[in-house]
Amino acid sequence: MSYINIIKENIPYKFDIRLNKLTYTMEINYNPDFDFFTVSVADSMGTVLTSGEKLVLNKEILSTQSYVNFPTVKPLDVSGVEKEITWGNFGKTVLLYVGGVGE
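Above: the chain sequence. Below: its structure as tokens.
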């Protein structure tokens, strides 16, 4: 199982990533007042798949959408210790995994 390396110090952080042989643009933002992260995703044609979606521990992004080629991407703490995503644990114990556990 692989994960997307997020550089918190660069937030707001926008980057292109290749997933399932397609390129997507992702942007990670942080709300310091309420200590949460959001993600926006657009395909290579610029079509926005999600914008400002809050990252929730163990919840797949774009879970309410169905995009054929977009893989499972979700923030996880594989140790099962964390209960939420915070500035302190994101990128350390909570990572943005691509694919399911064991894939």
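Residues 2-98 form one domain.
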